Every structure is written in structure tokens, then in C-alpha cells.
């Protein structure tokens, strides 16, 4: 008998409730902390609230859902499903992944399958769509998990408009932010194997965007990947750069929006160029 499987992500996947419902994907909402007060993304705080807090230069951080919240979500889904297939935020960026793997092993063996994830932002949804297709073709949850862990690949370049949010969140020092601002330095951050590191630092925004496109398109066949550009309330520039990325790859480029959880770390105006290797099944 075919098993009924619930596809689950957390809200770092940058997906709205409406789109999640349309796709048949469930979302575990993550806590967001603004000036020391905790909210639940998509429940008690929303994208427009995060934008307002960023513009007011408030300190914004995020934290992982508690083990109790994770277990409650799984229990809720298991009332109507035989299994839960959970693709959380990258293990390099959050403890949610490791905590969930341990919880599933200890208390939900065979019922909850957790991917040891290297994904973040909307690429999580790409992988869940592929998971659904594989399940419909007869793959088991365990086989889908193995394929994503072995073959799934995300590479992206993030270009913050400024360093204010990184400074306010404590990810760089005020002195370093001030010096970078004075020298008009634009950092390029790479997302690779689930972690984030500095790729380059340049003196103009236009050069940063050009190098960002060069980085994601270098030494690969664009036909092997799906492509996206993501922005944080910077739509006009995003549209211009999307055209450039499409010209560079010869491939369609999906346009997405950074939502509360990721935007609270990257800041308003951030642009991200990303590629996701397509799985063959």
C-alpha cells in the first residue's frame, strides 16, 4: 500500500503560507527575536515588520524551534500521514537539522525522515518538489533522502546592499562595518555545502553584481542546473540582474523574495544569485 507522506520544511525556506498550501508543503515556523522580544515568523511577525525593524536599525536575530515545537509539528502531521519527510535549514547554519535527526532516530524511527541538509532559502522548496516527484514514481522516503544528500547541490552568491544588518546582528564588528562603509567595500558571500563564507570584496556595487554572476556560472554547464535570483525588497534591480543572469546562462531564471528569517540576517536590498543541480531520477 502506498504511504501518505507529509513534506515539511521550516520558514527559512522563504515560502508564504499561501504558496505552501498550493504546493502541498507544510512549514515549521521559526522564532525571530527583535530587540530581545521573541516572535513567531508568519504568526506574530511578518515580512513588513522585519523591513520596518531593519530600517529602524533594531537588533534582529533568529533561533531554532524548540524540540517540543518540532515534535508537536510531527505529531500533528502523523495524525493524517504515514510518514513525514523533513528538509530543514542547512546543518551549517542552524542546530535544527542535527536536533531533528537525533529526535527522529530516538522517537520517530521509520515515521519521520530528516534530510541531513545543505540547503537554505527557496532551494529547499526545489528539493521538496523533486522529493514529491520521486515519491510519486515509487521511491521510498529513505531513497529520496539518500539521493538528495548525495546528489543535491546548492551554490549561491549573496551581495548585501550594506553591512548595517550584519553589524546590528553581531556578525561583524561596528569598526569593521564603519571602515568598509568608508571605503565603499561590497562583500560577496558564498553559500556552498550549506555554509556561508566570504567569496570576495570589491569597491563598487556594479562590480560586485558582475563578479557574482561570474562566480555562479563559472566552470559548469548551465543546462545541469536550475537558476534563481532572490532579492530583499529590491525588485527593480533584481529584474535588471535577472536579465543578465539569463543571458549568461541561456536558461530561465526564477525570481524569488527573501522573507523574514533570511532577510533578518542579510538585510534590506540584498541580492542573491543561485544555482541548484537538477536531480536525475
Kindly estimate the percentage of residues that lie in beta strands according to DSSP. Answer: 15-25%
- The topology string of helices and strands comes to EHEEEHEHEHEHHEHHEEHEHEHE
Largest beta sheet: strand ordering: 10-9-8-13-11-12
Which percent bin holds the helix content?
40-55%
By CATH, the architecture of the largest domain is named 2-Layer Sandwich
Number of strands: 13
- Rounded to an integer in angstroms, the radius of gyration calculated over CA atoms is 19 Å
Average pLDDT for all residues = 90
- CATH topology title of the largest domain: Hypothetical Protein Tm841, Chain: A,domain 3
Instruction: Kindly provide the name of the CATH class of the largest domain.
Output: Alpha Beta
Count of separate DSSP helical elements: 11
Count of the separate structural domains: 2
